[in-house]
């Protein structure tokens, strides 16, 4: 057990000294973990004297700190928040706000019961980012001021498709789903099915040269998109190619196009090698004056961030995708050596900038196609929790990441050994001191060409599980962030984009996080298999949350048919991921499924008796799979949830899981192409002519009917 002063110090830095685990048990955090995490925050807690010195430093800081680096002021049509300035000197307080568009306003103040002065901005103060200036006697401080909406616009009640885009192949794609496939999927979903959105996996940038990490949740940048998803033939300059270049591109694409007729694992390395060669041909084509002007506008809009990312890509092609293994002179993006190499590699830097321009255009067209099809929301993009340790983002913003730490999750029901995702966490104080600049630009980029954003692991706006390098995930602890500031940044960017936001608030989540998300009209996630009442029984539909995305499963679990048959238990046993006997796990699983089948029957959603279905599942019989899948989605439709999500895997009858948490190469994570219940490849071209029982309960216009 940590001593009292160390606990005080940890709490002042929002470092957890204990937590409630997934079984509801209070679990203390090891003292070594607390000391290591504090060290990553730049705090020496190695001795009692060092702890006392840091506590004294914090006391002194608080005696002169009129405002934090970022001040949030929330407003709504009916109410407005206040800015509290503490009385530190006894002198009168002067406060002014310099508006982003020019001009100055002076808030009106009143004394608070605690001696502070509380200020209210004029009602006509524009939303957005401004500068706050405070003087109190000899103290003068400035801070960024975010005037943010109190909440988002209410999300419409609609249903939509959820998919891992790379798995959705077509006759025109190069071995994996791409942005043209996304546009076509959205067009079909909106026009023929009446879907309101398509939720896709993160489309973040991966490594610029093989080997390419298959996980969309461990990218090289969350700010920029992945060129792997480009449709080569949709680059405008393709129309001007001569026959020789067209033949070269056709030869590059042929084996990849043929692969879509098989269930071979998706080979990102081969796909990117071919696409990169084809895109280099297109990059060398002359651009019209209008096209060149458009490109220059894009580069000006993206500014230094694009230049830094493209420079990292060019250097990574030479030195590998982990900047920590580069020559020391190149590990600082501001170094003279990097500037010299940027000039030397100007052609490659230009190529990677051009790729992002192409992505910007194709992402825009996917969202436009979704809206043209009648979707009120369109594409909902997914934001990963973080980036790889050696990634572009970690290189460009190195001081803003905590060294020697990675983000993960404590042990829970489905990952009983915990998880270490190998991603460096934001340093909370330094990110705030940077006025959340990289975080804000990342959100803006993610929302630019979409109608919504899903936060993978919604706790990223409140706290993250930090794992000291070399330690077990079970030996980590939570580190907190300024939730109000990060959530307000998110709400402001989503308001600007007119987008909905969904937070994946599954697992071990602080109750007040869910309350804060709901208060700002950020939806939570209601996963059917986890929706239990206070007695641990399946929750009846009327008692589900309204502000949520309701789904049967998630990409970290098998599709519904696979889950029904307990495929995840067998797989985790095979991979050594269980912490108790497989027979016990399977028995619990079957009880859970039986409870849900009883509720479905009670709701009048099953024609077959639950006991008969349970026996069939135990024997591996699949005769009732379609009936149960349809009943589960009919159940979702009875909940009050704002959004209903149906996985494309459930639509086509796929049984294999896309990802087994806790593994890397032990299972072909993120490499499984879409197939049907008979293990036949399913192409996007096949969908309009088919019928799908899973869609009948929610779609007003089922395909093929």
Automatic annotation (TrEMBL):
The chain positions of domain MalQ N-terminal beta-sandwich read: 67-149
Indicate what this protein is called per its UniProt record. Answer: 4-alpha-glucanotransferase
Do you know which InterPro entries this protein is assigned to?
Answer: GH, Glyco_hydro_77, MalQ_N
Q: Which family does it belong to?
A: Belongs to the disproportionating enzyme family.
The EC number on file is: 2.4.1.25
Q: Does the keyword Glycosyltransferase apply?
A: yes
The molecular function GO annotations come to: 4-alpha-glucanotransferase activity
The enzyme's first-digit EC class, named in words, is transferase
One GO term under biological process is: carbohydrate metabolic process
| Catalytic function, reaction form | Transfers a segment of a (1->4)-alpha-D-glucan to a new position in an acceptor, which may be glucose or a (1->4)-alpha-D-glucan
Q: Which PANTHER family match?
A: 4-ALPHA-GLUCANOTRANSFERASE DPE1, CHLOROPLASTIC/AMYLOPLASTIC (PTHR32438), 4-ALPHA-GLUCANOTRANSFERASE DPE1, CHLOROPLASTIC_AMYLOPLASTIC (PTHR32438:SF5)
Q: Provide the alphabetized UniProt keywords.
A: Carbohydrate metabolism, Glycosyltransferase, Transferase
Fetch the SUPFAM superfamilies from UniProt. (Trans)glycosidases
